[in-house]
Amino acid sequence: MTRLLLIGPPGAGKGTQAARLSERLGIPAISTGDIFRENLRAGTELGLLAKSFMDRGEYVPDTVTNDLIADRLTAADADSGFLLDGYPRTTEQVRTLDEFLADHGHSLDAVVQLTADEDETVSRLLKRARDQGRSDDTEAVIRHRLELYAQQTEPLIDVYADRGLVVRVDGLGSMDDVTERIVAVLSERGIRQAA
Ligand code: AMP
Fold this sequence. Notes:
Elements (H helix, E strand, L loop, with lengths): L1 E6 L6 H12 L3 E3 H10 L3 H10 L7 H12 L7 E5 L5 H13 L6 E6 L2 H15 L6 H24 L3 E5 L4 H14 L7
The structure holds adenosine monophosphate.
């Protein structure tokens, strides 16, 4: 039973690595951004609400995001562990996740911090904008998302570092190299691949 978080700036490659780690470790990757986008495609009220924030590069309000994740983490497949990608992003979300885990008698095993420098992340995001047409990948919105990350999310790394949970991984390089780096540092902490 492995419970992990993946934290890093927009464009660091979290989504790609989350999918690969999910497969390697045999746990579901849960991305709040993906859930918001799925809801938007399905035309739900949640999707429309989320879009109004996402398009401006703002965070969806904590109450909405926290309810969503509490619901998702009680699904059967998350019982045996999970990898959270893009959650928590605020101190209030950390508090909610702490409470949820404590209520279920669970705890986190590690927090993977994926690093990447700003020029690299901006150019990756602009490329993704061209390839995938995501409405929150325009340059102005990207800059704002990076600012918000620095202000609200980066400080969470210290919170988890104080708990001895953070493993730092360089997110630059090929996707395969980065995956191998993450698998190696997790393995050093006794977190092993699924059989
Ligand atoms: P992502 O796919 O992780 O880059 O997320 C895309 C957008 O979804 C973000 O820019 C936010 O608007 C919203 N979002 C995703 N996760 C969260 C979260 N944990 N808290 C608030 N907003 C979020």
